[in-house]
Amino acid sequence: MAVLATERLVRYPVVFLVVVAACLCANNARAQSEPDEYQVKAAYLLNFARFVEWPSDVLPASSPMTIVIVGDNPFGSTLEQLLRGKSANGHPIHLRYLRWNDSLTQYQIVFISASEEWHLPEILRSLGSHSVLTVGDIDRFSLRGGIIELRMVGNRVRFDINRTPALAGKLTISSKLLNVARAVHEDAAR
Questions:
Q1: Any idea where the domains of the chain sit in the sequence?
Q2: Which of the residues 11, 54, 73, 176 has an alpha carbon 20 to 30 A from that of 67?
Q3: Nearest partner of 148 among 115, 118, 113, 111, judged by Cα
Q4: pLDDT of residue 12
């Protein structure tokens, strides 16, 4: 019986290879179908751009909106690929990479990487009440004065919002965004 199976494999090597390749592709496609943590966080950044309004004197109609990554880039090429050719509410979106001590007040969204946790107080202090949406995945980011904290809850990415610095910066966060937040804080430290 074993000889017959071996003969079939020898007679039909192409069929065998196609079946093995199909199985490997199916497993690979299944693994790729579920986005990783930073693919989800990148999608959130794009949606935050769409569900937050900036004062018209800060972000005039049709002017570009800039998202800045401060510190190490945890997104790899994911965010850049996602944002390519995208816009938010009529604003073309640009992406920049800066350091913690660069001027950040002229940008609309600043993602503060976990690599900059030690500089977080200085970064938030330098932004003061400017109309900048701060986003980070640093532990307790929203309670430490950041506006939107991305966090893992189980195996899902969720977010908390601190409305106090958003209101100080004259940012209007859509009720749709507030309703899906895990938590909304008021009067957290800035």
A1: 2-33, 37-185
A2: 176
A3: 111
A4: 43
Nearest to 106 by CA among 77, 126, 83, 76: 126
Q: In the β-sheet with 65-70, what is the strand arrangement from edge to edge?
A: 87-88, 91-98, 65-70, 109-112, 133-136, 148-153, 156-162, 183-185
Phi, psi at 180, each rounded to 5°: -100, 0
**Residue segments in the chain with a per-residue pLDDT below the cut of 50:** 2-6, 8-31, 190
pLDDT for 188 equals 56
CA–centroid distance for 98 within its chain: 16
Q: Is the pTM of this model over 0.85?
A: no
37-185 CATH, one of 2.30.30.240, 3.40.50.2300, 3.40.50.10860, 1.25.40.10: 3.40.50.2300
The residue behind tokens 């309670």 is 143
How many Cβ atoms from other residues are within 10 Å of residue 32's Cβ? 9
Q: How confident is the model over 136-178, as pLDDT tens digits?
A: 999 999 999 999 999 999 999 999 999 999 999 999 999 999 9
Amino acid code (one letter) for 43 = A
